[in-house]
Structures are given as C-alpha cells and as structure tokens.
Amino acid sequence: MRGSEEILTANETQGYELFKEHCASCHFGPALGGLSFEKMGRAQNYFEQRGGALTEADNGRFNVTKLEKDRHQFKVPTLRNVELTYPYFHDGSVATLEDAVKIMARVQRDKNLSKDEIDKIVAFLKTLTGEYQGKSVSLLQEKDFQ
Ligand code: HEC
User: Fold this and answer.
1) What value does the mean pLDDT take over residues 96-121?
2) Spatial separation of the C-alpha atoms in residues 114 and 100, rounded to whole Å
3) Is residue 94 lining ligand 1, measured as CB closer than 6 Å?
4) Which residue has the least CA distance to atom 31 on ligand 1?
5) Cα distances (angstroms) measured from residue 62 to each of 39, 70, 143
6) pLDDT at residue number 82
7) 41 CB less than 6 Å from ligand 1?
C-alpha cells in the first residue's frame, strides 16, 4: 500500500485496481476497513436478497444507538486476513470469499462483476494474509499463540 510495485503479481495488481475502483470508498486505511460505519445494502436490499426473517442482529448499530438512521449500519470490517475469517458478514451467511465479493459489489455498488473481475479481487484479498513470527497465519494453530 506504500507503492512498492514488485510485491504483487500482475493478476493481484489488477485486483487491487478493481478494489480501489469499487471497494476502497468504504474499505480504506491501513487495515482496509475498521474506520467507519456503513449501511449493509446501500445500493440494493441485502436482506431481501438473503431471504429469511430479519433478526435482531440485522439491526446492526441501531441496537446500540436506537437511532433509526443507524438501522442496518455496520462497522466496515477490516479485510486483513479475510481469506481466513469465513463465514462472512454479520450473519455468517456466506461461506466463500468469491461469493462475499460478488454480493458486496451488488448490494453496495449496484454492480455485477464478471467472474474474471471477482477472481482478480479475490487474488488481491489473499495477499492480505499476514505473518506472525515468520509464519503465514494460515499455517498457525491455536497452540502457536499460547
Ligand atoms: C458502501 C460501503 C462498502 C463498499 C463500497 C464495500 N463494502 Fe465490503 N463491507 C461493508 C460493510 C458495512 C460490511 C459488513 C457487512 C456485514 O457484516 O453484514 C462489509 C463486509 C465485507 C466483507 C466481509 C468481511 C467479513 O469478515 O465478514 C468482505 C469480504 C467485503 N466487505 C469486501 C468488499 C469488496 C471486495 C468490495 C468491493 C467489491 C466491498 N466490500 C465494497 C461496506 C462496504
């Protein structure tokens, strides 16, 4: 993110360009999120598309502030290590990163991304998997943190 050009492959770089175009207005900052609240379903009705009854958790920030304007607002989550933090969204309703990216583009931006665009964004998101004590966190087990 500081501009080093050799770190990402061509595919990942294209994913980053797409990410900047479609996602970075909300997922910004060093952790790619965590700095603001946004409505889940800003461009299209997420809850209708998901189906099922509305739950108390679906109210989001409204549960804390009791202000109508905060209904369905959630903290924009960080995308660091997002490859490993499935299932996605506050309701855990989405199992794969591909589906999470596709749904985000649709409900937040009113945009149908192609499979190629989704794959590139996912390739970029996978570069956000970090290391702890020299090991990829995807290889770590609970005992490594004790
Ligand atoms: C209008 C603001 C906004 C935009 C634009 C946006 N997001 Fe999000 N994103 C959110 C919010 C808010 C959530 C939390 C939703 C929830 O928990 O129900 C979220 C959740 C996610 C998650 C799930 C993270 C987790 O740990 O559960 C992923 C992955 C994600 N966004 C990726 C993207 C991608 C990729 C794009 C671009 C295609 C994008 N987002 C565009 C606001 C946005």
Assistant:
1) 98
2) 14
3) no
4) 104
5) 11, 5, 37
6) 97
7) no
